[in-house]
Amino acid sequence: MHRSVFALVPAIVLAGCGINSVPTAEENAKARWADVQNQYQRRADLIPNLVSTVRAAGAQEKDILVQVTQARAGANQVQLTGEQLTDPAAVANFQRAQGAVTMSLQRLQEAYPELKSQGNYTTLMSQLEGTENRITIARNDYNGAVQAYNTRIRTFPDAVGAKIFYGAKPLVPFQATTPGADTAPTVNFGNGS
What we know:
Layout: H1 2-15, H2 21-57, H3 62-77, H4 88-111, H5 118-154, H6 158-166
Helix pairs in contact: 2-3, 2-5, 3-4
């Protein structure tokens, strides 16, 4: 009887120290990051097709569309893997590249009232808005998963297993890197009001 009790004690201790919950939380955070990358990939795949359609109908808007395409191409060159999520510099570099796409999309939105190919631009703007919303949701989900993981590896009893078995390090949450991102932009349609 005493042997079975002594055999059960280590199993209970291991179960309570994050032996399963730490890697589960880490994998969840990495899966949420994959969702963020999936949405960026969707944007990267979608924008060129939409831009090609609009370009055919509105050559006079070429300059704005070229900026969007160049920013997207630049963002595609910067990759961030799950293993790099603990490197603040790598995360910041990735966010800067994605911020350039966001800025070019904002320029496109600001020019929208002057664009002539209204039907195509309406579709483009709708798709861009939906895409940016999906990215925002994916980033929020990632940050939630990072928060859960980072909390788990820092709180008892999971912190014991996180340090001993996994050498767990905190993951880096997604943060805005665009200057002025914390301030709402002023909308000016140039009509004096």
